Amino acid sequence: MSLGTGHARTLSVLVLSQLSEQLDRPMMAALSRELAPLERQGHHLVLERGELDPQASDAHTLLQVEQWLARRHWDLVVSTTMSPAVKVRQLDRAIPVLFRSADDPRSYCLVHSLRRPGTPTTGFTSALPGWGKMAEALHLAYPNIRGLALLVDGTEEAADPDCPGVAMPPCRPGPIPSDELPQALGSQQDDAGLRLAAHRAGLPLRYVRVCKAQDFARLSDWLHPGDGVLAPMSYLSYTHRQQLVPALQSLGLPVVYDSRYLLLAGGLMAVKGSTESPEQPRGIELARRILEGADPSRIPVQRPEGFEFIINLRAAQAMGLVPSKVALRTADQLWR
Q1: Looking at the structure, do residues 15 and 94 belong to the same domain, yes or no?
Q2: Is the pTM for the entire model greater than 0.70?
Q3: Which of 6, 101, 294, 307 has a CA positioned 20 to 30 A from the CA of residue 276?
Q4: Cβ count near 183 (within 10 Å)
Q5: Can you give the pLDDT at residue 103?
Q6: 2 assigned to some structural domain
Q7: What does the DSSP assignment read for 72-105?
Q8: Tens of pLDDT along 40-55?
Q9: How far is residue 180's CA from residue 211's CA, in Å, rounded to a whole number?
């Protein structure tokens, strides 16, 4: 509903987050600033933050989200990661949802396309088709690697009758058989770019699937000496990053991630979407547009404008892996 002049309304915004209050503080401040003009127009703004347990099961998280949604009529739900947005959509198909996530919303059937979502769901995703760039950066930093291995998250989302997608094969941890790759990788990932980068570097490419956090202890059985490892952001890698990063680093292999969260957990290096300003987190400016009556199903999902290459020198020193001089000159950031 469009906000007309002279018709003051109560506008209720719920922020659902699995992040800590400290991590959410810049985003909450930016959201308050963005919505302040609506208050100056005479509207009453209700802004609440609902903290969700990041370690809870899917069923318990769904229950938590359901309880928050039942508290009042919400004009907009803001989700700081993809999981709460998915849960909201399971419970309510109509409420406008604005997300900020490192995941591709198409992978969760939240939108039909990034250019035109087609559902009352939009926002910002830092996901870019960057597997090829990750492989190039890994080979640049460690030119002596003898192969590439991509870690694939084999966990399966609950079936959505409105968006069945591709039937996932049974999740068997370890090397992925070639006939299962199309289903295991999905259609939105950058496999073509990865294969091209591996071909150009003359490196064999393998795919290793993990199904649960306990599989991290078996990575030494599936990764070879001389491998360079690509560990993209996924449900498992994010939720269990404090277990995954040490498990990989104990193998002494160079690993490239695509998320700052994995670097903060001690990861070696990352190729990720360009960093946004903490004062102006991307996507938040859409909140006022939606509350003013814009149709979120017609608002394109925002993405980063490019990539940045980060090397964690502390991790490199601890692992005894010295990046090449050309990589050190090329990196956008060196964490010391």
Answers
A1: yes
A2: yes
A3: 294
A4: 14
A5: 80
A6: no
A7: S--SEEEESSHHHHHHHHHH-SSS-EEEEESS-G
A8: 999 999 999 999 998 8
A9: 15
SS3 2: coil
Helix (H), strand (E) counts: the chain: 13, 13
Which CATH number characterizes residue 142's domain? 3.40.50.2300
Q: Which of 99, 133, 127 is nearest to 273 (CA)?
A: 127
Q: Which of 191-205, 214-228, 267-281, 298-312 is least confident?
A: 267-281
Q: Which of 193, 196, 202 is nearest to 146 (CA)?
A: 202
In sequence order, what are the residues at sequence separation of 6 or more whose Cβ sits closer than 8 angstroms to the Cβ of residue 313? 334, 335, 336
Burial class of residue 109 (count of CB atoms within 10 Å of its CB; 0-12, 13-18, 19+): middle
Assigned domain for 1 exists: no
In the chain, the DSSP E strands lie at 10-17, 44-51, 76-79, 97-101, 121-125, 147-153, 174-175, 205-210, 227-231, 255-257, 269-273, 307-312, 333-335
Lowest-pLDDT choice from 151-160, 186-195, 241-250: 151-160
- Could you tell me if 159 and 286 lie in one domain? no
Residue 290 sits in which domain range?
10-125+277-298
| Residue 4 maps to a domain | no
Residues 283 and 268 in one domain: no
Do 183 and 317 fall into the same domain? yes
Claim to verify: residue 222 and residue 318 sit in the same structural domain: yes
SS3 category, 160: coil
**Number of domains forming the structure of the chain:** 2
d(CA 312, CA 241): 16
Q: Are residues 143 and 121 in the same domain?
A: no
CA distance 78 to 80: 7
C-beta separation of 14 from 68 below 8 A:
yes
